[in-house]
Structures are given as C-alpha cells and as structure tokens.
Amino acid sequence: MNPPPVTPDGRYIVVRGRLWRRADPALPDVERQRLVDRLMDARRAVARALRTKDDAALAVARVAVEDEKIALGERGPVWWQDGDPDLNRRMARNTVYADWFATID
Predict the structure, then answer these.
(1) What are phi and psi of 61, to 5 degrees?
(2) Over the stretch 12-49, which tens digit does the pLDDT of each residue have?
(3) What gap in Å lies between CA 34 and CA 57, rounded to an integer?
(4) Cα–Cα distance, 52 to 38 (Å, whole number)
(5) Helix 55-72 crosses helix 29-52 at what angle (to 10 degrees)?
(6) DSSP string, 66-77
(7) Which residues pair with 20 in a beta bridge?
(8) pLDDT at 105
(9) 18: enclosing H helix or E strand
C-alpha cells in the first residue's frame, strides 16, 4: 500500500481527495511515537466499547482519541506560525492546493 500524498508544505496528507492535518513535525520522534501509541490504544478502546455497547467507555475512549490527536497537532491549534488557515477535512480541489492536487489526482 502506497502512503498518501503529502501537500508540498508538509501540512496535510490527502485521502480520497480530502486534506487531513499531519502531526507537528517539531515533535521529537520519541514523543511522537509515544503519542501515536496512546492514540492507537484509544482507538482500540473505541472499538472495544462499540463491540460491547458500553456507552460510558465509548465516551471516555473518544475523548482520549481527541486528546491524543490534539497533542500530535492533528487537531486543535495549528502548529505552523505563518497565519495560514487550517484547511483540515476540506476537499483539496477546493483549496489553495487545487493546482497541486490536479497533478497527482
């Protein structure tokens, strides 16, 4: 499986035409891996809660997923400092990346 395309500025990956914010590249590798491991644990907790129909556990697990994504920089305040807006979850063809995206689509 090929990795998803990354925008030229490194801020987003593109999955099925949609932009998804990448983790903050300034995170040290050890810290990033620790956060990714915790994110995967939280995602497994979501799946387990869904399987067992445990609404309380599901709520806790979803908060944990959100917290780890914020810590990674994939959600919450943007990690870049140039004032450009966050285009997370937008269709690449409708953004400033449209011309670039047209070359890879």
Answers:
(1) -65, -40
(2) 999 999 999 999 999 999 999 999 999 999 999 999 99
(3) 22
(4) 21
(5) 160
(6) HHHHHHHTSSSS
(7) 13
(8) 62
(9) strand 18-21
